[in-house]
Amino acid sequence: MMSMITKNQKLIPDTLMLEERAGHVLHAIIGMSDEDHQHIPFFAANLLEQPAYLTHGDWDYGSSHGRLIDALVLARHMSGEERGLDIEAKYRENFLGFFKDDGLSYRMKNPKAPWEPTANLIDQRAVILALTSWYMSTGDRKIKSVADKHVAALKRIAVKERDVWYYPASEYTVNGWPSNNAVQLRLAPDPAAFCGRLIMPLLKYHELTGNTDAFELCQYFAALIVQRSGVFNPDGSFNDALAYRSGHFHTRIGTLDALARFAWFTRDASLTHFVKKSYDWALTWSTAFGWTPGDMHDQAFEHETCSLVDLISTGIMLAQSGYTEYWAVVERFLRNHLTESQLLDLDWVVSLDHKDADDVGLKSFYNVAERARGAFAGYSAPNDFCCDKHGGRGHTSDLQTCCIGSGTRGLFMGWSNTMTENNGTVSVNFLLNRGSRWLDVSSHLPHEGKVVLDIHQNIPKLLLRIPDWAGYAKVMIQRELDGTAHTQSGSDPSMWVKQRFLDLGETRKGETITVTFPVSKRQTVEKAMGEEFVTQWRGDDVVHLSPEGTHHPFYNHRQIFDKAPMKMGQYRRLEQEYYW
Asked: What residues does 515 pair with on adjacent strands?
């Protein structure tokens, strides 16, 4: 891990800290390990049953291991936590054991289950994701060798047309594609799931290593999605045909995230516009606090944490591309449905304290509540951790390993983009508690409209995003340095950049800047697949939702005080940080 600058504890607001949440999810990542089944992690959980149980599935291999290894790298970087290193070593050992000589990652046989030992194309995305994070964090040349071979395999098996490349089936076998006819007919099932989402980790791997195969795959996959696939309709909406997984939100928005990154990297403004059009359409199907449908038909009521994290990542990329209005959108998602979807209270879950009822290799009832603490929801309702709607498929899974991994990535994306630096200008984009080598941000929201900035080094130019609902006339800035203080008003129009950022100009080491503004209290009616939810807001935080959930209700437990509660603590400040 990168070295940390030590800092004594001080009084800080007891408000949302994403790095603390990363420590909680680390517990669940380790807890999913099945010590009786070679430490292969469980994939899903049913928490409503009494007793609750964990289950294995065909996603256990490249997908789950890849997601969790990536999540472990990010969670440890954010939190500094080192517990569970022995389990992490097992995950990494298992993961490397799934590769065959052809460079692809294969699912393993399970004598109690029907899945086939093939190289699933959705799995390969999680595989290159993990290899990239693994190499980024360690510089291990052996892992780079595995990753280079994997990328070369992804390129080798792609069907190559003049202008696009694609995969003609969801599964690749040791004997090649299962049907030559599929290749000849250019079937390319669900290009977003099998090709589009791969662009994101492939592009990062290219940035990290300069691998040209990875960049070439990105080029041809992006062309496939935009020019030939039909995944996105001309108006930006998702193609809801059954062949396109009924407009599956996770794979579509994940593809938009990938394209947004590729557009940024290649400076392709037209591609950014393509992403923005579809992203804006997706937001109309989502609530303002971050719930999304699973798809447009049978899974419509089943929100995946994965989809929300895709919304977060895409919004950040669009904001970095100049559409600064999306910083506010993403902060609402971080403050609400992402962190609300993290399982910290398990009093309602019934588990066994013995393994007598376990079916090793398939199901475990043992200590489920404790093992799941810190996990993110697999399928949630807008107002409940557990989705049990009359529409769609009814109750299915409450936890999924993919969502645990994605939820961790969502925390990391919020944490790593809370403040950014470019050519000497530091920008505070999210009003969340966060430390850095430049400054500490102490946020008193949602209790008070107050943000305190403690400056650690001279900064040529400092920008602070102010929420749209705060206005500008009543924004006040107090600056203190060496015992001298002075106050400014945000009513001066020359202090604003792009209407949303307060330009604080040059700041000096040791300076403290306190910015205050009124907190908005308002009510909206949010719609989710035809259902309406009366939503009470305080600033960007939902503080009440009606109707209330049934099993593990969301939002209505949140407490608001006149003054933000304080605690003794410290922010994690790193000399060098990972960026994804």
From this structure: 451, 477
The answer to whether residues 338 and 25 touch, using CB atoms and an 8 Å cutoff, is no
Residue 426 domain flag: no
Per-residue pLDDT of 401-449, as tens digits, reads: 999 999 999 999 999 999 999 999 999 999 999 999 999 999 999 999 9
Measure the CA–CA gap between 521 and 543, rounded to whole angstroms: 10
Task: Please count the structural domains in the chain.
Answer: 1
Q: What is the pLDDT of residues 368-406, one digit of tens each?
A: 999 999 999 999 999 999 998 877 788 889 999 999 999
Two structure tokens written together for 135: 């190499």
Beta bridge partners of 55: 44, 363
Task: Give the structural domain span for 91.
Answer: 19-417
In the chain, the amino acid numbered 10 is: K
Q: For residue 156, what is the domain's CATH number? A: 1.50.10.10
Instruction: Decide: 169 and 180 in contact? Cβ < 8 Å.
Output: no
Amino acid at residue number 562: D
Please state, in angstroms and rounded to a whole number, the distance separating the CA atoms of residues 54 and 52.
7
| Beta-sheet pairing, 461-465 with 425-428 | parallel
359 domain-assigned: yes
Residue 473 domain-assigned?
A: no
Residue 200 lies in a domain: yes
As a three-state string, the secondary structure of 346-384 is CCCCCCECCCCCCECCCEECECHHHHHCCCEECCEECCE
**Number of residues assigned to the chain:** 580
Beta strands in 111-203 (DSSP E): 119-120, 159-160, 165-166, 171-172
- Asked if 35 and 367 touch (Cβ cutoff 8 Å), the reply is no
